[in-house]
Amino acid sequence: MVALAVVLAVLSGFIVRLVDIQIVNADDHIADSMQVALGASRTLYGTRGEIVDETGQTLAGSILLYDGVLDPKNAGPITRADEDGTRKVVSWPAVAAEIGAVTGQTGAEVEKIVADALAENPDSQFAYLKRGLTTEQYRALVDIGAPFLTFDSHPARTYPDGAVAGNLVGFMSVDSEPLAGIEQSANDCLQASNGSLTFQKGKDGVVIPGTEVETPAVNGGTLQLTINRDLQWYLQQLIGEQVQDMGAKRGTITVVEVETGKVRAAAEYPSVDPNDPAAAPTEDRRSHIFTDTFEPGSTFKALTGATVLDAGGQDLSSTVVASSTETFPNGARVRDAFQHEPYLYTLAGVLIDSSNAGISKFSERVSPQTRFDYLQKFGIGSGSAVGFQGEEQGLLYPVAQWDNQQLYNTSFGQGVTTTVPELVGAYDAIANDGTRMPLSIVESCTKADGTVVTPDLPEPVQVISAQTSAEMREILENVAMQASYAKQVEVPGYRIATKTGTGEKSDGSGGYKAGVYFTTMIGFAPADDPKYLVAVTLDEPTTVTSSSANAPAFQKAMTQVLKTYRVMPATTAPTLLPKFG
């Protein structure tokens, strides 16, 4: 009886302990067991979301790469069947040579990886063979049939069209961190969440069935841009040719849909290939469209013209008398780029001849504060709604800080800086019945669960009246028809409106560089019912230093835009406005 009581007591103790281990604290003990030497885990990588163009074509996507992992403790000869079914042993050096032939290593290098791991830990079951293997390499290594060779797959970023939209899309680091462009600014949409798989292995390295515990990964969302990939490609080739032909440092072409403010192309040269960003100089690994500021020059004359029409009681018949050099009552002196006697200029004539003196005289028809207020409504100095990574803003000084010369220079784009997005936004207001639409480059983000998120854009701004807009469209159409470069920008069958600007560049000490310019040509079509706006810039062209250098690229760009979006040719004739009163 005593012996039986002792046995029952011991048995009861075992039962209590088993209940505690297997039921009460089972989760804790399972977690502990996964941490012992035979436990292992793998990261389950979520796939970073795609970046696609307006038609769904991929600009940035993800592919699978593989990390080859050796089990040093079990690495050695393998048994393989011949074609006739005879089994034979393949020596470890021969297996290592086969592996190295696939990975680009020598057999000796593969053997050394195993030897080094075992020298550090005789029981080692983990050593990287090679990371970042392609699918083709992975399949070839699997075919070798080495049981001690396993693979961890993970996504890697790829850009199938190379440099197409590269300055916009941006790129990733080797550690899959977004470093630039939309990859960085839209990371919240694109980023995936990794999961994990934990399991236990036997002494031979084989996973023990039933021990797997999985936390699933969550893929990133798909980011759709407003960019048209094919148009972007064409315009990048075009601006590359123009930069080289004109001996410029760089150039850009920007296309905006007038009624929506959507950016349909933002082409730059030099460009960067996100697949290999290190191949491009640091200066070219960003978007100069969004991150550069410049003095706009005569493109601002259209903004001044719109202001005096809208707020200064002027109309298409209003005139000023202007010589090629004018001295104003406050002592300011303004010169035109060409010599001429006093002309009785209309506002159209001032813009056609791009007369600095003429637009300065028209600017007197409104107060400096009114001009400042209109420039702000046009969006000068406020950046854009795009919110591009590193986007700059123009510099518009308050009227109280304008000196005597700036009171007039600001009317024709000196003493003030802007950006390409600000300038195209201002011209969008001129073209779009006076309403400035917020620019956008992101159409939507579709999350992994199917939720579609669209950008939160500011409300459109009514800058000028619809009548003023119509009058300015007529004036700018006449600039395209009557300016010295008219034949260069003509698009047969279409009514085009344009304006050029030749901005001087600061020397960094309060003056300007001699003979060095930033040139711009901006315009829209059809002039009577604008659909698309195109801006072409060149930084320091040398073959032709005036804004006429931009004309060939502008003409070809506008032609391609009208073809791409199947804009119908004109069915009405333009009104010819007089240059002189």
From TrEMBL:
Its main location: membrane. Keywords: Membrane. Residues 251-558 form the Penicillin-binding protein transpeptidase domain. Residues 45-175 form the Penicillin-binding protein dimerisation domain. InterPro entries: Beta-lactam/transpept, Beta-lactam/transpept-like, PBP_dimer, PBP_dimer_sf, PCN-bd_Tpept. Pfam families: PBP_dimer, Transpeptidase. It comes from the Bacteria. It is found in: Membrane. Belongs to the transpeptidase family. This is Penicillin-binding protein 2. It comes from Microbacterium lacus. The lineage of its organism: Bacteria, Bacillati, Actinomycetota, Actinomycetes, Micrococcales.
